[in-house]
Design brief:
The protein has 225 residues and is α+β, with helices and mostly antiparallel strands. The chain folds into two domains: 1-110, no CATH class; 112-221, Hotdog Thioesterase (Thiol Ester Dehydrase, Chain A), CATH 3.10.129.10. 27% of the residues lie in helices and 28% in strands. Strands 4-5-7-8-9-6 form a six-stranded antiparallel beta sheet, with helices on one face. The chain has a three-stranded mixed beta sheet with strand order 1-2-3, with no helix packed on it. A hairpin with a 5-residue loop joins strand 2 and strand 3 (94-95). It is flat, with a radius of gyration of 19 Å. Bound molecules: decanoyl-CoA (MFK). Decanoyl-CoA (MFK) is lined by residues 1-2, 4, 149-150, 153-154, 157, 164-167, 192-194, 214, 216, 218-219. Keywords: Apoptosis, Cell membrane, Cell projection, Cytoplasm, Fatty acid metabolism, Hydrolase, Lipid metabolism, Membrane, Transit peptide. Its main location: membrane. One of its GO terms (molecular function) is hydrolase activity. Its EC number is 3.1.2.2. It is found in: Cell projection, Ruffle membrane; Cytoplasm; Membrane.
Length: 225
């Protein structure tokens, strides 16, 4: 989802009305805050991986847990109530710090840096670590779908329109090893409010997942009707 489509909120009954929020804050300030918070998310990512892989003794585990709990309490001393949502400013900068795929403040997100090429191919590269395991040593199928969904959504949301995933189809050609992956997506065709997107997830040896998706411009976001 994007708040960059000139749609300040979903219509009544969409459940999105309070998610797209305009903030009176400069892009420079958003960038500055992001530079402070993103490294924290990086460190928490390391913590997640370390939690999976650690072989320290049990007492050490208990002590570390107490320290982590204390850090959580410090961070919660002042916080927003609920999800981070999608925010945007008057300069057209949007940010979704809690997003599960690209959220700069979300340690669950890899995070993905999604790039739109001049020819409208959208791509992203990342390295999937031990926290994304499904089959032994392999990327969880749902994680692959998660990353594909987002990159396909960006492809569908060209020209700043809002689209939502309608239907996604995945063909898992072969297992994806943990490690570097590349996602590519492009719009195949459009029919009315339906945007058909094709995409791939690949490891360094080639494509591991092929995806087809139907992304819909929701009726409430149609502004030129
Ligand atoms: C730049 C930043 C980009 C960020 C990218 C973010 C990527 C992440 C994307 C997501 O995760 S979005 C979250 C997951 N998706 C949802 O929560 C969507 C939930 N469903 C809805 O909100 C609505 O059902 C939906 C917007 C998909 C459709 O509602 P509408 O009322 O606008 O559709 P309508 O019923 O009028 O149908 C319009 C056309 O779409 C078709 N359609 C509707 N739902 C569909 C569906 N689910 N799958 C395929 N086609 C669908 C429908 O048949 C029809 O086709 P025709 O024009 O040919 O008659």
């Amino acid at each position: 989802m994007s708040a960059t489509g000139g749609v300040a909120g979903g219509g009544a009954g969409t459940g999105y009305a309070s998610i797209f929020v305009q903030e009176d804050v400069s892009t420079a300030e958003v960038d500055r805050l992001e530079a402070v918070h993103a490294p924290l998310a990086d460190s928490v990512r390391d913590l997640v991986a370390a939690t999976i892989q650690t072989c320290v003794d049990e007492d050490e585990v208990r002590e570390v847990r107490a320290e982590v709990d204390a850090l959580v309490a410090r961070l919660r001393a002042r916080r927003i109530d609920g999800p981070a949502g999608v925010r945007y400013n008057a300069e057209g900068r949007s940010w979704s710090w809690g997003n599960a795929v690209v959220g700069e403040r979300n340690a669950v997100a890899p995070p993905l840096d999604v790039v739109r090429d001049p020819d409208d191919l959208v791509h992203a590269e990342t390295v999937l670590g031990v926290q994304y395991e499904g089959p032994p040593g392999m990327v969880h199928g749902g994680v692959g779908a998660l990353l594909l969904d987002h990159v396909m959504g960006v492809a569908a949301s060209a020209r700043k329109r809002v689209t939502f995933t309608g239907t996604l189809t995945m063909r898992y050609v072969r297992a994806t090893p943990l490690g570097p992956v590349r996602i590519e997506a492009r719009v195949d065709r459009e029919e009315g409010r339906k945007v058909f997107v094709v995409a791939t997830l690949a490891d360094p040896d080639g494509v591991t997942v092929e995806a087809h998706g139907v992304f819909i411009v929701p009726s409430w976001a149609v502004t030129d009707a």
